[in-house]
Amino acid sequence: MYIASIVCNTAKCHWKLPSKWFYYYLLDGDLASNNLSWQWVCGANSSKKYFANQENINKFCFTKQKNTFLDKSYEALISQNIPKELVRTKNLELKFIFNHKNNISINKKLPTLVYNYYNIDPLWRNETNYNRILLIEPSIYKKNPVSDRNIDFLIKLSKNIKNIQLFLGEFDELYSKIKDNYVYFKEHPLNYNYKGLCDSRDWLFSNKNYYPSFFKFWNASKKELGL
User: What residue spans in the chain does CATH classification 3.40.50 cover?
Assistant: First the structure.
């Protein structure tokens, strides 16, 4: 929130490009959560913007900085011009670069589980033998790129899944190799092009109703936690 506040509200940048930059480096980033958080901070869905001054940052980050462009009252912070430290900008160029030779082996007698960036759950259907494939789709990362450190992190986490294999390519390419047996995947908005049998995503609460704000959802759901 602090970074988004400085970039969007102090430096007066549009939220979209900096949110892409932030997502690019988040090791466990979620696209929806990231983008919506940036929009919330900059007030894209309301007239209220989130500001944090130096006193607030020092309090919660346990720092003692003074005389910065944030070391002002909230009234002065909101009304100030762009600080000279933030005037200079740089072109944003985010690229997804990943090279991998596909050499997967499919057992036609077994169904196949397709994992991806948003599902590397080692407990998912772990009671039975499957072909287990971690799918990395270039089209997804071309639109929403992540750094090579993120992919390295993903692959290391996937090692918790026994006998998982890595496939770099589009889902249709993978499906053409395994379509004669059952294909399972977990529900996620980015899986709209998948074919096969869809398992429900994991829900924090049984309450799946729509609410216009998080707090209304929370008030309706926290009873399950005994709160």
Answer: 95-227
Q: How far apart are CA 17 and CA 93, in angstroms?
A: 10
- Kindly tell me the burial class for residue 132, based on how many C-beta atoms sit within 10 Å of its own C-beta (0-12, 13-18, 19 or more): buried
SS (H, E, C) 5-65: HHHHHHCCCCCHHHHHHHHHHCCCCCHHHHHHHHHHHHCCCCCCCCCCCHHHHHHHHCCCC
CATH for 2-86, options being 1.10.579.10, 3.30.260.10, 1.10.357.10, 1.10.3720.10: 1.10.579.10
Backbone angles phi, psi at 48, to 5 degrees: -100, 125
pTM value?
A: 0.85
For 57-106, write each residue's pLDDT tens digit: 999 999 999 999 999 999 999 999 999 999 998 888 899 988 887 889 99
The predicted-structure confidence for 173-203, as pLDDT tens digits, reads as follows 999 988 777 999 999 988 999 999 999 988 8
pLDDT over 90 at 26, yes or no: yes
